[in-house]
Amino acid sequence: MEEQKRTILSGIQPSNSLHLGNYLGAVRNWREMQQEYRCFYMMVDLHAITVTQDPETLRESSYLGIASYIAAGLDPENSVLFLQSHVSAHAELAWIFNCTSYMGELSRMTQFKDKSAKQGKNIPVGLFTYPNLMAADILLYQPHYVPVGNDQKQHVEHTRNLAERINNRYQKDIFKIPEPFIGKQGARVMDLQNPTSKMSKSVENPKGAVFLTDTDKQIMKKVKSAVTDSGSEVKTYDEASPGLRNLIDINSALSNRSHEEVANEFSGKMYGHLKVATAELVVETLAPIREKMNQLLNDKAYLNKILKTGAESAQIVAQKTLNQVYDATGFIPKVP
To answer: CATH assignment of 206-294?
Structure first.
């Protein structure tokens, strides 16, 4: 009998369009995993409302996110694609974790410290308990691996701690303890205008991020205007400034060559040569994705069908886990 595929789960917030960093660091890797793993990929719209959202914008961003997934190569036939809010088990298990986790461990979360500092006085409770919802997202599907960036490793550790705490408290193997899966190449694309920070959808300077919705002209302009340094010629990768290394990283990821090969090609040449070549690679990669994405957005009936099918498949798996947790907790089962 063929061994059952191992499970992988991940998701991205539907705030603004996905960007080049999302594609290279996450979605492209997810596409390659579809044949080898049982994959659950979602738009985490519940997480998005930890900051105030315009309802119509959030709705359209959610459609855009799912369309981006499919356009970038995630196949609804091989992966479960769904919206987090369509599977009620996420919010239900998050409440259990709110009653299981401790104030101290949540207050030590680096992302909470960073985001709450930007939020000002009125910090939403959801921003504080965000890691518990993320833990619920993960553990409901009993995944073996969770593809994350380095900035999310702390949240995965919190997830593992909660899983072990519940298992030990009730002396049952309710949750599988997941491992973080961190892609190597292209896993961290930096801001084009501030190359010491990761490329972000909430970028302050719109020139810093290349979005999947950008036109070819916009992409060329953004990459060609990327911050480098006061020099003019490309040297070795190790000697390069953060801005130059970022361009080499992007070129490397898109051309499937090593950093050294890319640096050697442009060694002794003016920065402009690297910028133009990299911009052309980005356009070549993203243009067909953008075209497919726009086609999908014009067929909301199809997207709704994908979301309905995905939510139904996800709910079956998630509910099975939630039932085990509810039983262990002592809740009376619902009468069928």
So the answer is: 1.10.240.10
